[in-house]
What does this fold into?
Amino acid sequence: MIGRKALLALGSQLLVNFLHGITYIIAISRFIPTDFGYYQVAISLMSIFTIITNLGFQMVHLKIMSEDKNSNQVFSVFFFIKFILIIIASILLFIFVKIQMSRGLLIDSKIQIIIIMIVFCQNVLDSVSMIYFLSFQAKMQIARMQIPILIGIFIGTVFSLVSIFFFASFILYIVGNLFSSLIKLLLYIFLGGEFKLKKINIGILKRYFALNSIFAISIILNNLTLNLGPFFFLKYYDENLLGVYNVISSFFLMIGNFQNNFRLLIIPNYSKLFLSDKKKELQNLIDLYEKYLLIINGILIICGILFAKYVFKIIGDIYYEKGLLLYYGYLLGLMVIPLQGSYSPLLFISEKLKFFTLLSIINFLFSIISWIIFIPSLDILGINLGSWIFFLPNIILIRIYCIKKLKLGYFQKEELSHLLILVLLFISCFIIVKYEIKFFFLVLLTFSIFILYAIFLFKKKILSKADISYIKDMINPKKMIEYIGSEIKNEKVVETKVINKIDDF
It folds into this structure.
């Protein structure tokens, strides 16, 4: 069952990112980098709002909602917590913005203020939507979770394109994102009629705060790591160069969110298997997640390296001149998601939160050092360089900890050989791009590389006929439509196992 749910989640997220990406590319060609610099400042300011309205409760809700049968009571507790946090976050954000302006650290311009207000309203709507999104996700109701997002992004995309082509207004363009969030929330409320607000259960409320007590620290540090860098950057450079950072980072943020949503999707299954002490099934699920995402991200990185010049020709020469190294850094950073993303949720599920927090502290320290040392000399590259340096030790530490404490995560021969061939392919691609190759021949060369890669995967039995049969069954349009219809109608679906070798992934 989870296979079709995962495919629906991935497919819908892919469509969302495609629509958002197309709109973003068109906007880049029509508006100047400074506009995106103002937008990045607003996004960074919202880190305060995000930190407070999240505080780790999202992961806690996924865990409790997936384990507890009292859905309405759990939903009510989470709704209450979110409502209070949104009020507190809004007040603190307003105070912080006023202080920043009074000290001259934030530009007191009309366009900057308007953009901050639009992004703030969008964040409020998205924060409320997240209550329904996570509740549907915990109950594995993926169709209800994704349909509002798809409809919202489609309507918002149309609004944004009209704003770009007919009004040439950057403000109206980002209002499209706000409109998309509003439509999404209204649809969530409509589809989430099964969730009823009840009297707050004190026992469940205490459990939320007990689980959250340590995890909140890592959430705060991770958000600061992601959003504090641009403020350090503005001490040395202006909004124009920050706009280059915003454009490049936004594309990879879309990819990262797309894949992290998949990771969150499997957390309820992680939790059930871990509580049942089904270590073998849990390891199989982890291995499948890692294998498929390694292949997907490997292909993305290969294409990203080989076609980098063509990508930058589309978005503009200034982004190529100022942001090529940043682009490559983000591109190679995609390898972290399958290698770390499959194990970091285990730390939360098993409540090994002290170690999780320790990793967040180290990552934050690496980032601070990077901002102080590298931003003055490496400009936008210095914003992320510290986190990227920590990638490798972070992966190794998580795997070793999971092996010692959870008896999961042992390095397999196939996994190591897969990583080795990917590294060799990446190096080969960087060598190839040094030569001027016409687009047609570059496409043929890329296709040849993928054929060799596929041969390797089958030769080493990383992929098998069972995988192909499984994927074909999952993408069967008729079965997918039947599944979506049954979930919307709240019917139970009975599925047969397609492949015995894959444990109903």
